[in-house]
Amino acid sequence: DANNALVGYGLSMVTLYYLRRYLLFLKELFNECSESKFTISKEVYLLFNEIHSIINSINQNKEKAFDAKCRKDFVDKLGIAASDYRTQIYKKGFSGARQDVSRDKIIEFSYTCLNVIDDTIEVNKRTDGLYNSYNILHLSSDGMSVSNLYEMLEGQVAILSSGYLNADQSIDLLKALKSLFGMFTML
Question: How far apart are CA 130 and CA 16, in angstroms?
Answer without folding.
Answer: 15
